[in-house]
Amino acid sequence: MATATEESARRFIATLEARDWDAWTSLMTTDVVYDMPQTGERLHGRDAYLEFNRTYPGEWHLDPRRVIADGDHAVVWFAWTLRGEDGEDGSGDAQAFFDFDGQGLITHVTDFWPEPYDPPTRPAGLAFVSMDD
Amino acid sequence: MATATEESARRFIATLEARDWDAWTSLMTTDVVYDMPQTGERLHGRDAYLEFNRTYPGEWHLDPRRVIADGDHAVVWFAWTLRGEDGEDGSGDAQAFFDFDGQGLITHVTDFWPEPYDPPTRPAGLAFVSMDD
C-alpha cells in the first residue's frame, strides 16, 4: 500500500499543478474533508474543494520537495509560488497531510502554510548560520 | 525499515518531551543538521542542537498527532504548548521532517511552525465551516 499512497500523494500535487481537475478529483472520495488548521476552516465534499481550488485567485505553482507515505497516510512537503492578482507575489514551503480509505482514495486533507518570521534572540554561543551558507 | 524510522521519529518527540537528552541525542548522528526554513537558520551538529533545546526558554510540551515514515524519511505532525517565561502562552501544530542514514540515525531535521491567521475573503458560495463544528 505504501507505493499506492505515495503515488496518490504525488499525483495530488501534479494534477493540481496541471489544473487537471478530473484527475485531481478522481483521487478522493465524494465526501472528502479539507481542513486548514491555521484559519480553523473546513470544507466538506469534493465539489466544494474543487471549486475552492479552481477559483483560487492568482497564478500559483506547486513543486513537491518530499513525499512520505505508509499504507493509510501520506504527506507532501512542497514549495509554492504565487503571483497574486493584486501584484503581491509570494513563495514558501507548505505541507499537505492525507488520510486514505481502504480503496486508496483520499478521505481527508490537512494543509499547513508556514510563514517566514524574524529569528528570535538566540542564546550566545549557539552558532546559527544561514541555510543559504 | 519503515518500522524503525517510524519508531525513531516517535522517540524523537517522546524523548524531547521527557527531556531525556541522552536518549534523544542517541537517535542522531554527531554531525546532524537542523534547519528552520521560516527563519532561514541552520544549526550544525548534535552538541549545538542539544544546547538549543536544553536552553529553550519557557515550559513547552509536545504531543504527536501523526507519524508517517518510509525507509529513509519520516515526519511527525505534533501539537505543542508553551508557557513562556514572559507570560506569553501559546499552542499550535508543528511538523518535523527527518532524514535517516543507512544505520537508521537521523542526519537532518527540518521544522515548520505554522501560525494562525485570519481567513481571507472567500468566494461566495463556498460553504466553509469551523473545524470545531
Question: Greatest interface and its residue counts?
Answer: A-B, 46 and 46 residues
Distance between the termini of chain A: 39 Å
Largest sheet of chain A: 6 strands, mixed
Given as residue ranges, the uncertain stretches of chain A (5+ residues, pLDDT < 50) are none
State the shape of chain A: globular
Instruction: Indicate the radius of gyration of chain A in whole angstroms.
Output: 17 Å
Percentage of residues in helical conformation of chain A: 10-25%
User: Strands of the biggest beta sheet of chain A: in what spatial order?
Assistant: 2-1-6-5-4-3
Please work out how many helical segments of chain A DSSP would assign: 3
Instruction: Sketch the topology of chain A as an H/E string, one letter per element.
Output: HHEEHEEEEE
Structural class per helix/strand content of chain A?
A: alpha+beta
pLDDT averaged over residues of chain A? 94
* Total DSSP E strands of chain A: 7
Structural description of this entry:
2 copies of one chain form a homodimer. The first copy, chain A, has helices at residues 2-17, 21-25, 46-54, and strands spanning 28-36, 41-44, 59-69, 73-83, 89-100, 106-112, 129-130. The mean pLDDT of chain A is 94. The first copy, chain A, is 23% helix and 42% strand. The first copy, chain A, has 133 residues and is α+β, with helices and mostly antiparallel strands. Chain A starts with a helix and ends with a strand. Chain A is built from 3 helices and 7 strands; from the N terminus they run ααββαβββββ. In chain A, a hairpin with a 5-residue loop joins strand 4 (73-83) and strand 5. The radius of gyration of chain A is 17 Å and the shape is globular. A 6-stranded mixed β-sheet of chain A has the order 2-1-6-5-4-3, with helices on one face.
